[in-house]
Write a structure and sequence with these properties.
This protein is mainly alpha-helical. Helix content is 56%, strand content 0%. The chain has helices at 16-76, 88-94, 115-146, 157-171, 178-183, 201-207, 213-222, 238-241, 249-257. It is flat and about 65 Å long.
């Protein structure tokens, strides 16, 4: 126990603390330096991990928001409204908006028909839907393959791929064209359709979400076409990229700044 006034316990020499500190000072200084170096590295590693975690959290939050907006639009599209439904496929085909160099708003067109934004969203949702179709067809076929008796011949990889491609094309013919259409800048036969090409009308309603103002803002921001807080519908697009005939340098600048991460497929 400590003595009165915080003195050392009875029986411990008065100079004990001083000697002990003197003995430990040299070794503790070296240890502190080593520990300090290790601590600095650990702190930097922790900072990096924290930054990565924050970035993942931000991306996750954006993904949740994005998904929520799409679901809301799909469920409540035109509820209580007499508005005529608009088809992104038809808009892009009529305005030649499928091409990668279509980066300016056509003269007289509403702001939500900006080709870079509408094309990016339409392609992304089309790919998402077609991926889901492919997954469903694959799951059904895998069950069929699993039921093949050991005594029966098993199909080759080529036969499996051909069968799956045929199943997807039979359910949604356009899904069999999307990849080649993107590779050919939508010059191939059947790429620029006059209306939504999907057999499943719910998929057409899904893609119509691309005309929702909130979805438009998401893609506009992701593509670098609007700044945080700006609205696609409120932006003066003529002052950004000029008229539809001025596709030169200003359009190139937009493409160079667009699509570095985010929801949209890059316009170029």
């Amino acid at each position: 126990e400590m003595g009165k006034g915080g003195s050392l316990p009875v029986g411990v020499p008065p100079n004990f603390q001083t000697e002990l500190r003197g003995m430990a000072s040299g070794s503790s200084a070296a240890a502190s330096a080593a520990v300090g170096g290790a601590s600095e590295r650990e702190v930097e590693e922790l900072k990096e991990k924290l930054n990565a975690t924050n970035q993942e959290k931000e991306l996750y939050t954006k993904a949740v928001t994005h998904s929520s907006l799409l679901i809301d639009q799909l469920l409540f599209s035109n509820v209580g409204s007499s508005a005529t439904r608009r088809d992104p496929f038809a808009i892009l085909s009529n305005s030649n908006g499928w091409h990668a160099n279509a980066t300016t708003l056509p003269a007289g067109a509403p702001a939500d028909e900006h080709p870079s934004i509408l094309r990016s969203c339409t392609l992304e949702l089309t790919i998402d839907y077609c991926t889901r179709v492919t997954s469903r067809c694959t799951s059904v076929y895998l069950e069929e393959l699993g039921a093949i008796p050991d005594s029966d011949p098993f199909p080759t990889i080529e036969e499996i791929e051909t069968r799956l491609y045929g199943e997807v094309k039979r359910e949604e013919p356009y899904c069999g064209l999307v990849e080649s259409c993107m590779a050919s800048d939508f010059e191939g036969e059947g790429c620029r359709v006059a209306e939504c090409p999907f057999e499943n009308k719910a998929a057409c309603a899904y893609v119509e979400s691309c005309l929702d103002p909130k979805i438009q803002d998401e893609y506009g921001l992701a593509l670098g076409l609007i700044s945080e807080g700006e609205k696609v519908m409120n932006k003066d697009w003529s002052s950004v990229a000029g008229s539809s005939s001025e596709e030169g340098a200003s359009a190139g600048e937009i493409n160079n700044n667009a699509g570095v991460g985010g929801w949209g497929i890059p316009a170029s």
